[in-house]
Amino acid sequence: MRIGVFFGGPSREREISFAGGKTAFEYLDKSLFEPVPVFVDSFGRFIKLEHSLMYSKEIRDFYPAKSNQTDNFKTYIESFPHLAKEPVSQEIGLLLSPDQFKDHFEFAFLAMHGPDCEDGAIQGLLEWFKIPYSGPGLMGSAVGIDKILQNEMIALVNNQQKKSWTLRYDQWIPREYSILFTVLKKHLGLPLVIKAPHQGSSIGVAIVKEDSLDAFVSAINQCFFQVELESKTWKALDAAGKRAYVQRIANLDEGIGFPVVVNGDKIVYHPADLLEQLNNMFVVQDDIIVLSSSNAEDQVLLEEFIEGQEFSCGCIQFDNGKPLALPPSEVIKMVDVFDFNAKYKPGASRKRIPVDTTLEKNQEIQKVIAEVFQQLGITVCVRIDGFLTPEGTILLHDPNTIPGMSPTSFIFKQMAEIGLSVTQALTYFIRQSIRERIRLGKDTWNLRHLLEGLDAEITVAKNIVKPVKGILFDASDEHYALARQAYGKLNAEGVYKPIPVFHGTDGKYYQLPNPFMFKEYIVDVEGLISQGRHPLLIETARKAKLITDFFAGEIDDQIHVFDNTESIELIKDWFVIKID
């Protein structure tokens, strides 16, 4: 089956989407699927991308073409609005219209995030053109993009009490900043958590910890995606500093992005033009200039700060639509504010499965996650974040209907605990998504035939006895990371059965089951070897047996120890790949 892997889009999360698209492109089971990369640009055009460009570091490295880049600024294509009507270079790929999709793929795998990408917009387009797609349908997607609506609906399901306030843009009046801050401190207390309600990947998230009006104003503006630039600040910068400032505006992980609206009036598309505009305006005025994203939020969500253990918990489905909550992961933050950079930069956080609490409390987290999944009309897959307070209260927020999909993302780590590799998890997403599209009653029999054919292929592929390819690595984080990459690649190729073998510091060789290849550091692997698996992980894997049996077959979840000369010589015959 040809799988159109959709990534990019107009949202601020497009680079995270690119990372997810790479995962699907590289890790889809090549014995079942042919990945077809489909890059969605900021103008909403669909481009069947040249495969070599999937290995670019970021979207701006290949699009727009370097011939269009000027003034040495790094920009996205929306900085060149005239290109929206020009043909796409053949070196980039082939421009597709939606009515041509069926000529190139049978299924759309959505690795897209944010507005227009996981809010039902692209899902509705695909339904119109009878293309089955991955993830929840229209209703679940619409709920999943709106943090304000989510809070209200989650509270209806589990009766959770969490103080919040919605601030509209027309209420954000400069002369009343101090009054508003006083009211919010009284209502919500400090620290204040401020969120842009339609963003993900921790973009548009700020925390005001101290009783500082300046910090409050800056945080609110950040979540409205606007900047109040004072004349004295601009004039204090030298030429290089000014260029760096407008470049930061263009960077989606730290700026507001282009096009920029200046003082609610003039639209500026390019950093070079903004640089000229600011220089000219501050010559004739000595005031504050407001720079706002053309896709600014119209309201922001303010919440009380929750003390407690932060967790993230995925939920998937059985074939009959019933939910299965995966083991929750605890997020251990190494920084004060878990914003975009903290979330995606190495060393900013660690993950622990399950949450460091009682078995009963972990089971309770799973129970409320499954209830919210079902009652909010979400299907196929979701990742829901939350807090476990010191009093034992569970508070949920931010359902993600298209979770981040790098190979080390929460959802893959949690699905590994029930026995699925990244490749098998991706197959699950595709298969279960087709099943859920059938429930919509659109193009029903064509989808039934598509599902029947895929099920037959999965069964055949699962039952083929594959030759073993061993992966031997020692007790270092570098070698463990390389072993994980090799393990994922071999699973995706579908030709060999990869067997990871860890050479421990005790001199013994350990044949490891699948979950051990999804940890962050080698010390985590060594800890599991000595301590054994948590009862919640064993219990959840048992509940998931119907799923894992279908997608992976019989799973060997035991550690096998080789500690004598004869057995070591035997397993060395496997070692086609040795990490050193």
Automatic annotation (TrEMBL):
GO terms, biological process: cell wall organization; peptidoglycan biosynthetic process; regulation of cell shape
Catalytic activity annotation: 2 D-alanine + ATP = D-alanyl-D-alanine + ADP + phosphate + H(+)
Domain of life where this protein originates: Bacteria
EC class (word): ligase
One Pfam family linked to the record: Dala_Dala_lig_N
Enzyme Commission no: 6.3.2.4
Primary location group: cytoplasm
UniProtKB keywords: ATP-binding, Cell shape, Cell wall biogenesis/degradation, Cytoplasm, Ligase, Nucleotide-binding, Peptidoglycan synthesis
Claim: Lipoprotein is one of the keywords in the record: no
Subcellular localization, as worded in the UniProt entry: Cytoplasm
Cofactors named for this entry: Mg(2+); Mn(2+)
Record InterPro entries: ATP-grasp, ATP_grasp_subdomain_1, D-Ala_lig_Van_CS, Dala_Dala_lig_C, Dala_Dala_lig_N, PreATP-grasp_dom_sf
Domain ATP-grasp: 221-431
GO terms assigned for molecular function: ATP binding; D-alanine-D-alanine ligase activity; metal ion binding
Any one Gene Ontology cellular component term annotated for this protein: cytoplasm
Family: Belongs to the D-alanine--D-alanine ligase family.
Protein name from the UniProt record: D-alanine--D-alanine ligase
Source species of the chain: Dyadobacter frigoris
Lineage: Bacteria, Pseudomonadati, Bacteroidota, Cytophagia, Cytophagales
